[in-house]
Amino acid sequence: MATGRTHRPATRSRGIPEATVARLPLYLRALTALSERSVPTVSSEELAAAAGVNSAKLRKDFSYLGSYGTRGVGYDVEYLVYQISRELGLTQDWPIVMVGIGNLGAALANYGGFASRGFRVAALIDADPSMVGKPVAGIPVQYIDDLEKIIEENGVSIGVIATPAGAAQQVCDRLVAAGVSSILNFAPTVLSVPDGVDVRKVDLSIELQILAFHEQRKAGEDGGVGGADLPSAAAVRAAAPAAVAASPASTAGRKGPDGDVPAVMPA
Amino acid sequence: MATGRTHRPATRSRGIPEATVARLPLYLRALTALSERSVPTVSSEELAAAAGVNSAKLRKDFSYLGSYGTRGVGYDVEYLVYQISRELGLTQDWPIVMVGIGNLGAALANYGGFASRGFRVAALIDADPSMVGKPVAGIPVQYIDDLEKIIEENGVSIGVIATPAGAAQQVCDRLVAAGVSSILNFAPTVLSVPDGVDVRKVDLSIELQILAFHEQRKAGEDGGVGGADLPSAAAVRAAAPAAVAASPASTAGRKGPDGDVPAVMPA
DNA sequence: ATGTCTTTGTGAACGCGTGCACAAAGATGA
DNA sequence: TCATCTTTGTGCACGCGTTCACAAAGACAT
Question: Which domain holds residue A29?
Answer without folding.
Answer: 13-88
